[in-house]
Write a structure and sequence with these properties.
By secondary structure, this protein is α+β, with helices and mostly antiparallel strands. Helix content is 19%, strand content 32%.
Length: 155
């Protein structure tokens, strides 16, 4: 495993739509392992492949329950109820803003073994799922910010 460089705002790869993964092979597994290590090394809760320069529909998330690997994720259901909360992004360090996201989402994806699974998320997990899937479509959280906040000076 290796830590990869996280692409920052202004890198055009972050604005491109990712291609589906057609085959899960040794290179795919190596990328996933590197992404998990990179996410933890950066103290993140999620990381999408374009953030490490790869235009594939892969993301990893850990909201405190261990890493979840999502290959070719797609939202299959989301609540009409939305919650506005503060988000940040490893590709836009030091910037935080309030973003509205569905309170609950259901996502279908492949795991690292190529098996389909469904994950239902509420709260922070729902937010992380939406944030990382947005990355796969070339959308950054700042595109959805309602209000920027200074987290260093908030109580």
């Amino acid at each position: 495993m290796a830590t990869r460089e996280i692409r920052k705002k202004g890198d055009e790869i972050l604005r491109k739509k990712c291609k589906p993964v057609k085959e899960i092979n040794a290179r795919t597994i190596e990328l996933i392992d590197d992404m998990i290590e990179t996410m933890y090394n950066a103290d993140g809760v999620g990381l999408a492949a374009p953030q490490v320069g790869i235009l594939k529909r892969i993301c990893v998330i850990d909201v405190g329950e261990g890493p979840v690997v999502l290959i070719n994720p797609e939202k299959v259901e989301e609540s009409k109820e939305q919650i506005q909360a503060v988000e940040g992004c490893l590709s836009i360090p030091g910037v935080y803003g309030e973003v509205k996201r569905p309170e609950r989402v259901v996502v279908k994806a492949l795991n690292r073994d190529g098996e389909y699974f469904t994950i239902e998320g509420t709260g922070m997990l729902a937010r992380a799922l939406c944030h990382e899937i947005d990355h796969l479509d070339g959308i950054l959280f700042e595109d959805k910010v309602i209000r920027y906040v200074d987290v260093d000076n908030e109580e």
